[in-house]
Amino acid sequence: MNLDDWVATGAHELADVVRLADGTEAALDELLQRGLEWLGRIAPYDLAVVFELEGAELRARAARGALASPDVRTHRIRLDDWPSIRLAVEERRSRVFTEEDHAHGEGDPFDGLMDFPHGHACMVVPLTTGREVFGIMSLDRTECQTYPRPVVDLAEVFGRLLALSIQCIKQGQKLAEATLHGEERIQALDRHLEAMTEQAGILEGSRVPKVRDLARQARLVASTNSTVLLLGETGTGKERLARYIHDASPRSQRPFIPVNCAALPSNLLESELFGHERGAFTGAVRARSGLFRAANGGTLFLDEVGELPPELQGKLLRALQGGEITPVGSERTIQVDVRVVAATHVDLEHAVAARRFREDLYYRLSVYPLYLVPLRERKDDVPLLAEALLRELAPRVGKSKLRLSRAALEALERLDFPGNVRELSNVLERGAIRADSSIIDVAHLRLTKPAGKGARASSPPSEGDALVSLAENERLHIARVLEATGGRLYGQGGAAEILGIPPSTLQSRMKRLGMPRASDR
Fold it and tell me: Is the pLDDT of residue 454 over 70?
């Protein structure tokens, strides 16, 4: 078989695996095993291993051959200990180890694990595509000779094909993680949103006049098809209010689909919103309808719309004005009947002035703006909100009829909650987990500041402090929280949880404020 035929046949075989892949880790493992099997047809080996790059280490991911023992499958290689392997990855070129390398150089990556003779056949093939580096393939044979140059060249070509196939499956994994599909997605969203409806309904029964007015305005606009823009601080319950508007509208029996514009990479967001055709980009192994079509007849909630990339703003404007979308990779337009409710904490007028947001899109979104009231301005609603939140939390923490002691409730009423309803929910959930019974006391809440009149989550500036802009104050507060968490964004006790916002939103805000990226550990 000549080179062209061999490459074409191998590419077709890998493509078949990718086409049948379901975006799981098992599909990737199958691809790697099939790749090693195919490579053995032109580069015989006693041991072939695919190593995946993890930081500064290579971790064995797949292995084939007579010497593929369980120890091999858990083997790790530190790149700092192997300059020749690091160079092969950086230069995207295969590397063969000679007898001189084995005897007087770095040795063999399996020294101490395998008893290969010095001078045995050994080759490293980088698995890279563009700027992406998956890892390497290593091939070893007990025969004391080096792999000939034509074989090395073929292996290098195949390594690029395998890397491209890996990238396809990885892209499919990202798409699968970003969204559920069809009815399964809608059912999951409905289960989540049912728990939110009761809390949004508290607006009508609020003890605060401007909150009751917000509920009245929301019900007025709900009966129309007008676009609504929800404004206010993070954590004030924008998604809950969007669901409230949907449930009060003639579209209530149709889907309510939320999407966070800041939570997805821009290259996935367009496909997520408008769909794509099969083969439109690497990893598009099947066509997708997109969320606009999933919400047809219903409501699409675009959260953090102020973070929408500039290249997508024009397409969103077209969808709002004409009810038309164009899937990625398609030239045909599709009519949709979708009511859009958008939300942002960003000052869109300032973003328009700075040319970060299209002026025509801003006016199209803000047909009927609604301003959500921060929790510190509706303290009288804390008991009602806490009661509803505890009913939602009870199944999650495995305790029924959760309630607050009088001391705990009084302590919560004295806090300002800069993270608003989301922060209140987090505080209650931590307290419910710590409580030995269904009663949550003030000690279980572990509030960061003594609960005195006017207590705040962060200390107010003293008289001698310099006055700074709102953005600078936000940057300083985030920096203090990151310092307290050792730079950790995610998980329990992470900066995102303390600030009461999703980690993706925190990362987006840090980027906007020009802050260095924190550790994700």
Answer: no
